[in-house]
Amino acid sequence: MKRLERSLVCALVAAPVLCAAPLAAAADVKVISSAPQAVGKGKARLYVALDASGHPLALGVSMDKAALEGLPTEPNATSRCFDKNGNGKMDAHECIGDYERVFTLPAAAAQALAPFKWVGFNWNPHGHMAPAPPPWAEPHFDFHFYTADREAVKTIRPGPCGELIHCDDFKKATRPVPAQYMHPDHINVDAAVPDMGNHLINVKAPELQKGGPKFTHTFIYGAYDGRIIFLEPMITHAFIASGPDMCAPIKQPKAWQVAGSYPTKYCVRHLKGVDRYTVSIEGFVKRDAQ
Questions:
Q1: Is the whole model's pTM more than 0.85, yes or no?
Q2: Are strands 217-224 and 197-202 parallel, antiparallel or unpaired?
Q3: SS3 state at 250
C-alpha cells in the first residue's frame, strides 16, 4: 500500500501520466490520470493505478486541498429537476441539487478496468432528501463508478416518481436485481434518480442503526433495469477534510452479470506530503459472468 501511495504522490502531483523514475520502490506501479477539472477553489482528476502486469490496483478521484474549499453551499437549481407541482418554476424540493463532474477512463486503462467506463463525481451541499435516510442529509461527495455507458445513463429521464424520475423509468430503475447479483444487505428504498439510476443502500450501515454514529462514509450499489450499473462510495466533506487513511470492505454478491475486474474495498486517504485527498475502489479481483 505504501508503494501505491508513493506512486500516487508522484503521478498526481508531478506528472499527469507516469510516475518518474527516482521512485524506484514504485517503479512497478503505473499511474495514469485524466486532465484535471475545476472543483471548489482547486482541481480534481481521475486516476488509475496498474501493476507491472497491467492488473488494476486502484480506480479513484484525487483532489487537491483547495478543491474542498469554496464549494457551493446551496443546491444546484438546474440539476435533475422536474416541476412536480406544475407551478411553472423549479422550487427547492424539485431539483436533486448536485454539482457533477464527469471523468472518462483514459483509453490506456479502459481494457484493464472493464467493465468500468466513467466516473460521476458529485457534490451535494445539503446531502440527500427523502427517500434517502435522514443521516445522509450531510454535505458530502458521491463517487459513482459506472459500468453502464454514459449515453445510456443520460436517457434516464426526470419526472414525478422516486427522486424526481420519470415514472416509466422508475419502474425500470426499481426492477429487482436477481438475488445472486446483489448482496442481501443492499436493498431498494425507491431512491431512483434521473440521469443516474436506483440506489441500493446497505441497510446495515452503522449510521442507519438506532443510536448509530454520525454518517461519515458508506457504500451503495446502483441499479437500472435489473442490472448493476454503478458502485458508489459516499463520503462526507468533513470526513475527507479530517485527513483519513482507511479502507472498508465492499459487500460482495455471489456472482456478477458481466465479466471483468471488480473491487473488494473502497479507500479514503490524505496524502500528507502533498496535501491531496483520494477516494478509490481497490482490491480488484477478476470475475467471470455467471
A1: yes
A2: antiparallel
A3: coil
